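Box 3.1 — From sequence to structure: NIPA like domain containing 2
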Amino acid sequence: MITFSVMDQMQLTYPIFYIMCIIMIASCVFQVKFLNQATKLYNTTMVVPVNHVFFTTSAIIAGIIFYQEFLGAAFVTVFIYFFGCFLSFLGVFLVTRSREKEHLPQSYIDFGNIPGKQMLDKIQPDSNGLSYGTLPDGSVSTKSQSGEKKED
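Predicted structure (token representation):
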């Protein structure tokens, strides 16, 4: 759109130009917010490669859908394109695989106070413990598909 505007086909008069600018700015703000939250939990050597792979994958899918990049393309061209993407992802994997795993200081996500709900000490209990999957009072109760309550 900017190229067309420079070539005397002014795009600033079309509302889609402003809609796309707003969407682009919103997605940039969301991505920065997401990356800031991720770097608080994990090291940047884990966040940046994951961001690279997801951003590249979403850009490929958007290009295929929006621009119809492979419409009429030969099989060899499509194969080479995806093979290049695979090599890029493989390079990211090889660079980051020897990094030691970082463990979170907390084993759960704290959502804060939820009005009307009883707060427990952990939202995600230790999966190795005996209490995993039980109710707070210790009873194991399930509902059948018909809606009646069963006690085990």
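Summary of the box: The chain is about 50% helix and 5% strand.
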